[in-house]
Amino acid sequence: MNDVTRAAQLLHAGELVAFPTETVYGLGADARNPTALAKIFAAKGRPADHPLIVHLPDASHLGDWAIDIPAAAHTLAAACWPGPLTLILKRHPSVPNLVTGGQNTIGVRVPNHPVALALLHEFGSGIAAPSANKFGHISPTTAAHVQEELGESGEKNVAMILDGGPCAVGIESTIVDMTSATPRILRPGAISADTLRQLLHAPVHDSQAAQQTDNAMHTPRVSGSLAAHYAPRTPLQLCALESLPAAIAAALQEGQRVAVLAPERSPPLPVDQHLIRRIASADFSQFAHDLYATLRELDAAGCDVILVAAPPDNETWRAVNDRLCRAAAGSGSGSGSSQDTA
Predict the structure, then answer these.
(1) Of all helices (H) and strands (E), which one includes residue 244?
(2) Average pLDDT over residues 43-70
(3) Of 154, 179, 212, which marks where a domain is finished?
(4) 247 and 187 belong to one structural domain
(5) Do 130 and 273 fall into the same domain?
(6) pLDDT at residue 336 above 80?
(7) How many alpha carbons lie under 13 Å from residue 145 in its C-beta half-sphere?
(8) How many domains would you assign to the chain?
(9) Is residue 321 classed exposed, middle or buried when 0-12, 13-18 and 19+ CB atoms within 10 A define those classes?
(10) How far apart are the C-alpha atoms of 142 and 324, rounded to whole Å?
């Protein structure tokens, strides 16, 4: 019996299986089994009203999980799946409440990873899978990260971890609400608003526009939408690149051990035995790929503060800036912050 077949059998038996996707590692359970779904919330320490994303073998399964699917959703599914795009649709009545957080909407996607797809096809149905980490912590992008988060406690939270190597994208999927007249990005990711507009030949509200309309209309709750998460235990601060040397000098003067994530082309930075520096890529895709692994490394370095040079403030970098702002808001709490990811 190969690992994928065994993992599918464990899922059918109501157990949890961690598996790789192109974005981050997910903590999977049978999306039709409320008892199995409850294990996700217990293992992560996740509030029960936070919805889960359901991963599908392919787009032909959409009708099993959603109703009143608009043509635009089919267009995006055909163009972007398998891939890092989650569609928010009206839920099918048969979907368990634990999947949707009690809402009338559901998030679905088809991941672009050979191990994930093999598992989904072997399992034959939807797998609910938020990120395979404790609630509020940095998302895992390797099997070792999952083991660190969920495999070292006294109780066995995960029946099996499928190792598919490092995740190719490294940040969570773009989430698009397809239940309103104009599609809205509720969480930015590797697929940008501009790309979605080009695919649909129609307007798409970006994440900032969606936030501005939150008070005017109902916005579904989705993973990655609260102010504080993706967080290291070490306090993280975002700094403008030009102010980074002064921020480092001030922290060192206070006797702090400092970790720095900054591009190679930075203003001259202090040299000190209490300073750890990691180079941030100037390329968005590489930066996103490296982000969570680098934050985990710096979080484990025993420093008092992590200083990150803020990336460019533009559409290309929106997803990375989103993660860093939320990480800064939730960092330093010791046990994590107020939400997890998917």
Answers:
(1) helix 244-253
(2) 94
(3) 212
(4) no
(5) no
(6) no
(7) 29
(8) 2
(9) middle
(10) 19
